[in-house]
Write a structure and sequence with these properties.
Elements (H helix, E strand, L loop, with lengths): L1 E12 L2 E12 L3 E5 L6 H8 L7 E6 L2 E2 L5 H6 L2 E4 L11 H8 L7 H14 L1 H5 L10 H13 L5 E5 L7 H16 L3 E5 L3 H7 L2 E6 L2 E7 H6 L1 H7 L4
Parallel strand pairs: 3-8, 3-9, 6-7, 7-8
Antiparallel strand pairs: 1-2, 1-4, 4-5, 9-10
Length: about 240
Amino acid sequence: MSLLELKDVRIAYGSVEAVHGISLAVERGQIATILGANGAGKTTTLRAISGLIRPRSGSILLGDADISEIPAHEIVNRGVAHVPEGRRVFPTLTVEENLKLGAYKHRGHPDKVNSNMERVYKLFPRLLERRLQLAGTLSGGEQQMLAIGRGLMPDPDILLLDEPSLGLAPKLVQEIFRVVREINGQGVTILLVEQNARLALRMSNHAHVLETGRIVLSGPADELRRDPRVKKAYLGEK
């Protein structure tokens, strides 16, 4: 059963249409990835799902409910969390303060906030070591850990991850994706936008290729990994 489904979604910035009627589904419990070059519409698609921008037309279904017209904070309350490209942590707040901001859904329930924070610290022990450190003084990898941890604080059913490996050393990339698999294993559905196509396809159940605002390929990730067009354009193979 699909947890998330986009049906003929069109998204525009002013008079310029960036996404041209895309349809895709993300099954509950799976990892799905969206591949595409810069400017293809990947980030725009995630922003529409999380309510940061409104589609011009079409529908975005979370379960049976259309969320395309409701406010972003209500979409979080319904189980969608978005970890944006570039981390976007609050640099003048501590690690712990950043995490607490991610838990505003549970405001008034300190026990729930604390238990979710313990979960994040178990996934990312380095954040526990730096919990009183200002987020702006963390390394890039630590900030990415914090951004993902903040996304887990509201107990999402689906986590939208936008370029989690961007700017990270290969060793840190492997660590981030190990944790992403662990989060998925805990029952959180993942929709991933990722520049490292080889790694994304290896860890995903399903994949979609977005080119200039249109989905040109969709299917099981293993099949797309063997597709000659994907191998040439995204995997550097002939």
